[in-house]
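Below is a filled-in request sheet from our internal design queue. Each sheet records the structural input a requester submitted and the sequence that came back. We keep these sheets so that new team members can see what a complete request looks like end to end.

REQUESTER: design group, bay 2
PRIORITY: normal
MODE: inverse folding
CHAIN LENGTH: 338
BACKBONE (tokenized):
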């Protein structure tokens, strides 16, 4: 299989009159176990010498993973440029003509990408154009939280992942957008529900007659995600506290493991169920095919791809199984266009 990089380090999941949704990737194919029967349950705690390599690829966006910060900041700047180049390139398409233009006829640029210091919480940060103090803080020192919400146009909200579930939401009633980093801890603690609560602070979300829409980016699939029963119980308790039926959820997201103390967990399915609980419609992403579709293990899932099975994406668990020192982070972004 070729190790040549993709033409672009991103895929467009959706481009409508109101939003642009983009998933980034590693910009190249990362290392995978050469043996196709490699044990995904290996924990590499046997005292073997660790692999001294890193899997940063060509488009790591994470500043916290011991990569060269200058390179990461360059990648982030390139990403902003790529978003604007994409919008300029597609402005002449009939379905997008005029709707993203300023009065002078030029395409409205994406002004900034907002990042978070993600902490696996249920904390939500609002970014509004009239809140200059908040914008200043976000641009210089990313706050510690796991979701972003805005009603301001021409802003890109980003969440970084390397197996966790990235989610973006569009509310056609209030014209708000949100980006959510949903690891298992965030899902257990209600990060999706807290984001929905923040969206509801602007009139139109609850009273509007149009369903909210969500997209799920690349994340780890059930057949690759082994967890302890303790993790399962915490997730099910979180769902129960949110008014969901514990047994029904368990049947849909928990797969039997040969070890009675473990289970195979369907994290993107759980995210989908929590979104559906709030009446949010999960939209199947429309993106160009990955060069490793044969390895994707998300059949039947509305997630874009399996981050573990498709090595064009970063995977923390794959990094662990390969005993690599560090791996990069990709991003799912939503841009409010008008």
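RETURNED SEQUENCE:
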């Amino acid at each position: 299989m070729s190790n040549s990089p993709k033409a672009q380090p991103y895929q467009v999941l959706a481009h409508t009159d109101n939003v642009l949704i983009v998933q980034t990737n590693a910009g190249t194919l990362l290392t995978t176990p050469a043996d196709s029967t490699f044990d995904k349950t290996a924990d590499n705690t046997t005292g073997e010498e660790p692999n001294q390599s890193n899997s940063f690829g060509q488009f790591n966006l994470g500043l916290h993973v011991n990569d060269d910060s200058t390179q990461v900041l360059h990648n982030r700047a390139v990403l902003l440029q790529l978003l604007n180049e994409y919008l300029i390139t597609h402005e002449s398409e009939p379905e997008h003509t005029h709707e993203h233009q300023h009065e002078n006829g030029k395409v409205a640029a994406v002004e900034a990408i907002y990042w978070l210091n993600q902490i696996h919480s249920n904390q939500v940060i609002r970014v509004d154009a009239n809140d200059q103090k908040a914008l200043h803080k976000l641009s210089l020192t990313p706050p510690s939280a796991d979701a972003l919400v805005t009603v301001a146009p021409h802003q890109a909200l980003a969440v970084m992942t390397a197996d966790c579930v990235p989610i973006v939401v569009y509310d056609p009633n209030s014209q708000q957008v949100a980006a959510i980093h949903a690891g298992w801890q965030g899902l257990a603690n209600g990060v999706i529900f807290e984001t929905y609560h923040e969206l509801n602070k602007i009139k139109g979300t609850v009273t509007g007659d149009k369903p909210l829409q969500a997209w799920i980016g690349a994340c780890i699939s059930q057949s690759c995600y082994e967890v302890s029963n303790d993790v399962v119980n915490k997730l099910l308790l979180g769902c129960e506290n949110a008014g969901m039926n514990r047994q029904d959820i368990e049947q849909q997201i928990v797969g039997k493991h040969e070890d009675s103390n473990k289970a195979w967990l369907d994290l993107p399915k759980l995210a989908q169920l929590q979104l559906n609980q709030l009446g949010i419609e999960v939209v199947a992403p429309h993106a160009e095919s990955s060069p490793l579709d044969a390895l994707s293990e998300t059949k039947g899932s509305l997630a874009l791809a399996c981050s573990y099975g498709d090595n064009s994406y970063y995977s923390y668990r794959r990094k662990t199984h390969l005993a690599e020192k560090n791996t990069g982070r990709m991003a799912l972004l939503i841009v409010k266009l008008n």
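SHEET NOTES:
- The CA atoms of residues 284 and 315 lie 22 Å apart.
- Helices lie at 69-89, 132-140, 184-188, 191-199, 229-241, 246-253, 267-277, 316-321.
FILED BY: M.R.
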